[in-house]
TrEMBL record:
Keyword Ribonucleoprotein: no
Family: Belongs to the flavin monoamine oxidase family.
Compartments it resides in: Cytoplasm
First-listed, main subcellular location of the protein, grouped into a coarse class: cytoplasm
SUPFAM superfamilies reported for this sequence: FAD-linked reductases, C-terminal domain, FAD/NAD(P)-binding domain
Name by which UniProt lists this protein: Amine oxidase domain-containing protein
Gene3D superfamilies for this protein: 3.90.660.10, FAD/NAD(P)-binding domain (3.50.50.60)
Keywords for this protein: Cytoplasm, FAD, Flavoprotein, Oxidoreductase
Cofactor annotation: FAD
PANTHER family: FLAVIN MONOAMINE OXIDASE (PTHR10742), PEROXISOMAL N(1)-ACETYL-SPERMINE_SPERMIDINE OXIDASE (PTHR10742:SF405)
Length: 600
């Protein structure tokens, strides 16, 4: 994920104040059920009654949340030798959507890129402990995210700061206001600098506007209304102002993962929290963090190349005889079956959304083959929908509904290495002409559709011969469908359209998260019809337990399916620290269940 949304645009810390206590002890987590001493004792007696059989825990996925869960379970001195623990990873590496790579002698990130906040961040703490924050090898983001640079119009004209700054100030102020709208904040100083009535915008938006995109457009309209009336020159200026505003919106799309800001829930946007202290890349690569955690697990605990194709579990109303051995069976593509007492599911929200759609179509009796999917659906989804359901029986409707409502975006990065340039490559921010006709696709100098929502192209660091760019939503999927040559040519043509000539392309390196069947996208966001409550629901374990302590039916084995991952954290979703903390949460749920975690 790109640097934290407020940190990019924050003009003054005093505008929002201290959002939250940065200590880990005060992190917003889902409340675990309180188990009384007698309940914990009963659980331990059950284990003894089974001939001291160690509970079998299977973790699906060796990304940040899966490795974090395993690491925390083994870190408990009381429980380390009392669980039979296995981590199943479909690929041949740890990390999931964390994937460090190299191009042109530069260490780059195909997935997670930044530590979002320093003070209190568990990811920063690990990076500091293992010495991953510095490196002799150049790395992406070494000199920060080079963004406050030239803004160009199509044709190559550099925009004067006097044109760009007022729009940028307005946009930053509106974003900070969007953080406040759902909190009913009464601060009026946010928009004073640009002379807008923040009170009216906020009051109107709470009644009429539900998306971040609509809120931003309303703010733009109210702020510049009338500037262009009756004057052609001012009308041109108005178009430029809208273009600069849209440039910032395109950056925000990549930050949030939303293909359109109109699909981003305004109230939930204000719930998002952050660690203070800015954003940092990891010099030795983000993969070093997960690898450091995984290295502390026993050899062989992580089994690679083990793609899970079916999870059979036992829900309410089934016969007790089914639970004679283990309540859950995990079936792998290679034909192996692993029985478990508990399964921690850390697959991406994209995989779960595919499951929700599969169940919906099955229930509706739809014929999947030959159906036309939505235009922004990743290629391969139709084939995936034809495969058997991942969960048997299916997840309950209340959980599938919340999964379907939540958003899961596609964000991709492309790195282009050039032959040694005569001059240092410079970053460029783009203001596209929306009124111009689209280029013919067969034109050799065409700027492709997927490039026309680029917010910038910039070097990985100041002296780099590698330029990077980000693509979101439908544009990201179009990039994934194009060949390397087509992508390289499209980026070079775009730069030329804006007056930037480049040396010959040597090679490119890029991500393809949207069409990767193991992920089906990049990271989550709260969509327009969803809410933070849906994230909490996504995190609930199965079979569902009542509020308090005991389960509805004591004959049904509890905590068969537990869910972790960035999309299960209401306040930090879309980040690696959300994934890490969700793993701790589910490990603690199991530790408490067996009496190894004391509750005050």
């Amino acid at each position: 994920m790109l640097p934290n949304r407020v940190r990019i645009y924050q003009q003054s810390k005093n505008l929002l104040g201290a959002i939250f206590d940065s200590s880990l002890a005060s992190l917003h987590r889902i409340q675990l059920p309180v188990l009384h001493n007698s309940t914990r004792q009963h659980r331990m007696e059950q284990v003894i009654a089974k001939g001291m059989k160690r509970p079998r825990i299977v973790i699906i996925g060796a990304g940040m949340s899966g490795v974090s869960t395993a690491h925390h379970l083994l870190k408990s001195t009381k429980a380390a030798s009392r669980f039979d623990l296995t981590v199943l990873e479909a690929s041949q590496r740890v990390g999931g959507r964390i994937c460090s790579a190299e191009i042109g002698g530069v260490r780059v990130e195909l997935g997670a890129t930044w530590i979002h906040g320093i003070e209190g961040s568990p990811v920063y703490k690990i990076a500091e402990e293992i010495g991953a924050l510095d490196s002799e090898q150049p790395w992406e983001g070494k000199d920060g995210m080079i963004m406050d640079t030239a803004v160009r119009l199509e044709g190559g004209l550099n925009l004067d700061l006097s044109v760009v700054k007022p729009v940028t100030d307005l946009y930053r102020s509106l974003l900070l206001m969007a953080q406040e709208v759902g909190e009913n904040a009464a601060k009026e100083d946010v928009g004073i600098a640009v002379g807008i009535n923040t009170h009216n915008i906020k009051n109107n938006s709470k009644n009429q506007v539900n998306s971040v995109g609509a809120f931003l457009r309303e703010g733009l309209a109210k702020s510049f209304d009338g500037n262009h009336e009756g004057n052609m020159q001012k009308w041109d200026l108005r178009a430029i102002q809208k273009g600069v505003f849209k440039m910032h919106e395109n950056l925000e799309r990549s930050i949030t993962g939303a293909g359109s800001l109109d699909d981003l829930n305004l109230n939930a946007y204000s719930e998002y929290k952050e660690f203070p202290g800015g954003n940092l890349p990891i010099a030795k690569g983000y993969s070093s963090i997960v690898q450091a955690l995984a290295s502390k697990l026993p050899n062989g605990m992580i089994q690679f190349g083990k793609k899970v194709v079916r999870v059979k579990w036992s829900c309410d109303g089934l016969e007790d005889s089914k639970f004679s051995e283990a309540p859950v069976q995990v079936c792998c593509e290679d034909g192996s079956i692993i029985e478990a007492d508990h399964v921690v599911v850390t697959v991406s929200l994209g995989v779960l959304k595919l499951e929700a759609e599969r169940v919906r179509r099955s229930a509706a009796g739809d014929s999947i083959l030959g159906q036309t999917l939505e235009k922004d659906a990743p290629s391969g989804v139709a084939e995936a929908l034809c495969t058997a359901a991942l969960f048997d029986p299916p997840l309950p409707s209340w959980k599938l509904d919340c999964i379907a409502r939540l958003g899961f975006g596609v964000v991709d990065k492309v790195f282009v290495e050039f032959e040694a340039p005569k001059e240092t490559l410079q970053p460029v921010r783009f203001v596209f002409d929306d009124t111009a006709a689209l280029d013919a696709t067969d034109s050799p100098d065409a700027v492709p559709h997927w490039a026309q929502k680029l917010f910038a192209v910039y070097p990985t660091h100041k002296m780099s011969c590698v330029l990077e760019s980000w693509y979101t939503g439908q544009e990201a999927l179009e990039v994934e469908a194009a060949s390397d040559d087509e992508v390289a040519r499209g980026i070079v043509n775009t730069l030329r359209r804006f007056g930037v000539n480049t040396p010959a392309v040597r090679r490119i390196r890029r991500s393809k998260w949207g069409t990767d069947p193991l992920f089906q996208g990049s990271y989550s966001y709260v969509a327009i019809d969803a809410s933070g409550d849906d994230i909490d629901t996504n995190a609930k374990s199965l079979p569902l337990q009542e509020e308090g302590s005991v389960y509805k039916d004591s004959s049904i084995p509890p905590l068969q399916l537990l869910f972790a991952g960035e999309a299960t954290d209401r306040y930090y979703y879309g980040t690696t620290h959300a994934a890490y903390l969700s793993g701790l949460r589910e490990a603690e749920r199991l530790l408490q269940h067996y009496g190894y975690l004391e509750v005050p």
